[in-house]
């Protein structure tokens, strides 16, 4: 039996006085997020795991033999070492013909500049014209790469003639090989720009929308809702989400890092705060249903082998700094700012300190924050994420900060996983690798944070004097989809470990995940952000901004986070464990 009461902050909460029943497994949204997420992961596994690239293991063995021989032959990474490494990197499940068909079906809108139709359609003539325009730049980049390779070969040969015993020659060879790699990267980018192919996404987007709609409607029907009403509203949400993806791919927006999440919320807010969201759309506005399913899929991407790869320094940066910032920001909000809503306070604190929207959703569910409070937290996160992903790489470059340190700093502070990877890519591949890995390590704390908040709220915030808080109440409050997130992480980490890092990278990471579940996760998150916008009215948010306290809380908390993360990253990567840093 459920009844309404008020917590110490004065907000209405629903306290369930009964116990969970077995029917919750098919009647509750959290469980359906788990079931649907694992159905997607199972389908992806059945597609990719039995169908690896041809001669995969033999090719890996050949490349690894070269890598081992070159590592033993020279004190630096040779040209042959890099070529063998490149050969390994090209062995991907996503390059298989069937994988390309899947990618075409799940594709997001393409890049465009002036004509939004280009996001969905490009004729053969238009593709040929773009390729012809980009061809001179590619030819020039290819020539520079060839010249750099010739110079690198000459320098490496000189170092080898001295039996790699002359440090000056070794340094010269190492520098020339690095220059060749930089030229190679530019040539690869130029090749992509000269490799446009005609496409028409209209049929695939329409069928994808229908398929995802039916997929979620099954759960809605079993949970007791009208699948028809949901499906009709869903089509509108999906159409708006598709436009949000198109907004992200516009060239200027892409340059400034204004992603689909911001556009989805903006488009939704424009409708909800002007003409109003139509009543027939509201059954399809299911923010938590979409994002919880997406978060289960995100769990499969948190592979423990990547946590081990960065090692203890990354764990300290992610798992020590994060809870300190979370707790201190919450205390600051209560004791200094005296924020009237504890649920808003903890949701912003988790959003800012853990990993953005994902943590905000889990925390809001654990403390039962109002949807307006969640929207406000997400909005703050998106604004500052867009700013930080541009400003931080520029600052790191300007001061000459080592890229490993800069990557660790960004990975521990920028909220969204995608934004972290993009910011790291502005610096270098090494910075992107460190930043993305630390963010994945930090993502593990989503479940820990949700559980901790659920316990704290039961015992300290929503508790009634003289009433015993049972474990059932904590269990009822705990967001169950987090269990799916953790289970997916453990399961896919075990699968990855069982097949080995090379095979795991080829058919798990660049197969099941990147070739299937991650693309669907992107769509689910986009649907959730669109739903947030459609369900939010600025009039409902106005009183939360009284005195600017949410903004002050976020700015002060993020400032503390920036200082503490940078300090911890420097100490761990360069003072305590420099030998690990040297191997990255």
Task: Give an account of the 3D structure.
76% of the residues lie in helices and 2% in strands. It has 584 residues and is mostly helical. It has a two-stranded antiparallel sheet with strand order 1-2. Strands 3-4 form a two-stranded antiparallel sheet. Strand 1 (2-6) and strand 2 form a beta hairpin. Helix 16 (342-355) packs antiparallel against helix 22. The model is unreliable at 1-18 (pLDDT under 50).
SSE blueprint and pairings:
Layout: E1 2-6, E2 12-16, H1 24-27, H2 29-48, H3 56-73, H4 79-89, H5 97-105, E3 121-122, H6 124-161, H7 167-193, E4 199-200, H8 202-222, H9 227-249, H10 251-255, H11 260-272, H12 287-301, H13 304-310, H14 312-319, H15 321-336, H16 342-355, H17 357-367, H18 371-399, H19 403-413, H20 417-427, H21 429-443, H22 445-461, H23 471-477, H24 481-499, H25 501-534, H26 538-541, H27 549-576, H28 578-583
Antiparallel strand pairs: 1-2, 3-4
Kindly list the characteristics that best describe this protein.
mainly alpha, two-stranded antiparallel sheet, disordered N terminus, 4 strands
Question: What would a concise description of this structure say?
Answer:
With 584 residues, the protein is mainly α.
Distance between the termini: 55 Å
Q: Outline the biggest β-sheet.
A: 2 strands, antiparallel
Instruction: Give the % helix.
Output: over 70%
Structural class: mainly alpha
Number of domains: 2
How many beta-strand elements? 4
Shape: globular
Q: Low-confidence stretches at least 5 residues in length (pLDDT < 50)? A: 1-18
| Gyration radius, in Å | 25 Å
Tally the helices. Answer: 28
Enumerate the strands of the largest sheet in spatial order, edge to edge or round the barrel.
1-2
Beta-strand portion reads under 5%
Mean pLDDT reading: 88
How would you name the oligomeric state of the polypeptide chains in this document?
Answer: single chain
């Amino acid at each position: 039996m459920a009844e309404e009461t008020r917590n110490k902050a004065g907000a209405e909460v629903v306290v369930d006085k009964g116990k969970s029943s077995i029917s919750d497994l098919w009647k509750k949204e959290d469980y359906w997020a788990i079931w649907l997420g694992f159905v997607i992961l199972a389908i992806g596994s059945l597609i990719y795991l039995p169908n690896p690239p041809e001669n995969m293991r033999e090719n890996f063995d050949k490349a690894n033999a070269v890598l081992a021989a070159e590592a033993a032959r020279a004190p630096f990474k040779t040209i042959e070492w890099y070529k063998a490494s490149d050969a390994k990197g090209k062995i991907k499940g996503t390059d298989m013909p069937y994988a390309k068909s899947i990618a075409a079906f799940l594709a997001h809108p393409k890049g465009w500049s002036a004509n939004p139709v280009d996001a969905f359609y490009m004729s053969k003539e238009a593709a040929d014209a773009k390729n012809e325009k980009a061809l001179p730049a590619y030819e020039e980049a290819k020539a520079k790469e060839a010249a750099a390779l010739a110079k690198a070969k000459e320098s490496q040969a000189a170092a080898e003639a001295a039996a790699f015993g002359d440090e000056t020659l070794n340094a010269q060879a190492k520098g020339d090989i690095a220059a060749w790699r930089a030229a190679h990267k530019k040539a690869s980018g130029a090749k992509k720009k000269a490799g446009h192919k005609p496409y028409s996404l209209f049929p695939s987007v329409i069928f994808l929308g229908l398929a995802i709609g039916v997929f979620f409607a099954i759960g809605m029907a079993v949970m007791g809702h009208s699948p028809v009403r949901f499906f009709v509203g869903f089509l509108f949400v999906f159409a708006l989400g598709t436009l949000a993806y198109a907004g992200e791919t516009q060239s200027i927006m892409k340059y400034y890092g204004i992603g689909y999440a911001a556009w989805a919320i903006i488009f939704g807010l424009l409708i909800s705060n002007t003409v109003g969201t139509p009543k027939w759309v509201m059954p399809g506005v299911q923010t938590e249903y979409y994002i919880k399913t997406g978060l289960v899929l995100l769990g499969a991407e948190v592979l423990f082998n990547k946590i081990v790869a960065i090692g203890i320094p990354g764990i300290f940066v992610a798992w020590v700094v994060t809870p300190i910032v979370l707790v201190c920001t919450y205390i600051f909000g209560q004791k200094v700012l005296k924020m009237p809503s504890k649920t808003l306070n903890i949701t912003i604190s988790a959003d800012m300190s853990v990993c953005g929207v994902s943590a905000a959703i889990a925390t809001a569910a654990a403390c039962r924050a109002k949807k307006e409070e969640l929207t406000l937290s997400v909005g703050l996160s998106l604004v500052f994420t867009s700013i930080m992903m541009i400003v931080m790489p520029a600052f790191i470059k300007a001061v000459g900060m080592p890229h490993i340190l800069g990557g660790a700093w960004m990975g521990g502070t920028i909220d969204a996983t995608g934004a972290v990877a993009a910011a790291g890519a502005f610096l270098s591949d090494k910075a992107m690798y460190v930043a993305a890995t630390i963010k994945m390590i930090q993502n593990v704390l989503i479940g820990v944070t949700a559980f901790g908040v659920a316990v704290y709220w039961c015992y300290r915030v929503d508790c009634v004097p003289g009433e015993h808080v049972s474990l059932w109440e904590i269990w009822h409050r705990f967001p169950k989809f987090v269990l799916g997130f953790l289970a997916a992480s453990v399961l896919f980490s075990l699968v990855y470990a069982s097949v080995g890092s090379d095979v795991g990278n080829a058919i798990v990471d660049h197969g099941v995940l990147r070739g299937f579940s991650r693309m669907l996760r992107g769509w689910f998150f986009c649907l959730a952000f669109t739903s947030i916008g459609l369900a939010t009215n600025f009039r409902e948010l106005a009183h939360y901004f009284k005195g600017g306290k949410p903004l002050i809380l976020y700015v002060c908390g993020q400032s503390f986070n920036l200082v503490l993360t940078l300090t911890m990253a420097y100490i761990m990567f360069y003072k305590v464990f420099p030998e690990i840093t040297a191997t990255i």
